[in-house]
Amino acid sequence: MLLEGKRALVTGSTSGIGLAIAKALRAQGADVILNGLGDPDAIAALQEEIGAEFNGANLMDAGAIEAMFAEIGAVDILINNAGMQHVSPVEDFPTEKWDAVIALNLTAVFHTTRLAVPGMKEKGWGRIINTASAHSLTASPFKSAYNASKHAVAGFTKTVALELATSGVTANCISPGYVWTPLIEGQIPDTMAARGLSREEVINDVLLAKQPTKKFVQPHEIGELAVFLCREEAGNVTGANWSIDGGWTAE
Ligand code: NAD
Prior knowledge:
- The protein is an alpha/beta fold.
- The protein has two domains: about 5-180 and about 220-250, NAD(P)-binding Rossmann-like Domain (Rossmann fold), CATH 3.40.50; about 180-215, no CATH class.
- The chain has eight helices and seven strands, in the order βαβαβαβαβαβαααβ.
- It has helices spanning about 15-25, 40-50, 60-70, 95-125, 145-165, 180-195, 200-205, 220-230, and strands at about 5-10, 30-35, 55, 75-80, 125-130, 170-175, 240-245.
- Strands 3-2-1-4-5-6-7 form a seven-stranded parallel β-sheet, sandwiched between helices.
- Helix 3 (about 60-70) runs parallel beside helix 4 (about 95-125), helix 4 runs parallel beside helix 5 (about 145-165) and helix 6 (about 180-195) crosses helix 7.
- Bound molecules: nicotinamide-adenine-dinucleotide (NAD).
- Nicotinamide-adenine-dinucleotide binds near residues 15, 59, 81, 83 and 182.
């Protein structure tokens, strides 16, 4: 198996895309540490199903991230995937929601990266993969905090890639278009309100309208792209922002 002997932390992996990435890495033999929020029994069942460790650090808290790394030690693969969305016109955007989106989608990525890099450098091998978004390359209205955080993550990733270029550690973004997960489902009511549309209109005229394939991206497709970026053959792929968006950002 490709990733036998590699230890991988996947943030935000109790649901959606992170869970699919965790399963894909595990299927290639990696030892996986899940992270995220959720019902303890459901998380225990996931651990059992995948055969993974779990650390429930709240990534909005820098101290909790430091405690998590003190507990789990060095990792070979860091998948920064946890994220959240809030949909609102900028003039009404609740400031506490702005702070929360930036804390989780951006600042947590800085903290996990700074804590993971020394161990990777010491081993002369590492993979940092940040789940950004098509919204790291383009924008949509009413998602000011999310668009700002994802553009920033893309820039942060390039800087880290350059700093680590000769160390055997790569840093890349994966940028999905719309993937049917709880994050997308959760933003439909606010998008209906912000745009005055029905649920079907939001799905077909706002979400899938962006994707020339007219299909949602599937979480397991993102898992396989993450596996590719972890391969030895991807050692020269660094500082890249990989779109997996049904052609959205080609337009
Ligand atoms: P999701 O809501 O299904 O999963 C989010 C995960 O983050 C969950 O495991 C949740 O428990 C965890 N999380 C939330 N707050 C946390 C916190 N404070 N501390 C630790 N973990 C926390 O969402 P998803 O759609 O799978 O999104 C995953 C990533 O993909 C996000 O970064 C999102 O921005 C990005 N993304 C999603 C889509 C999409 O269409 N779904 C598109 C592009 C990018």
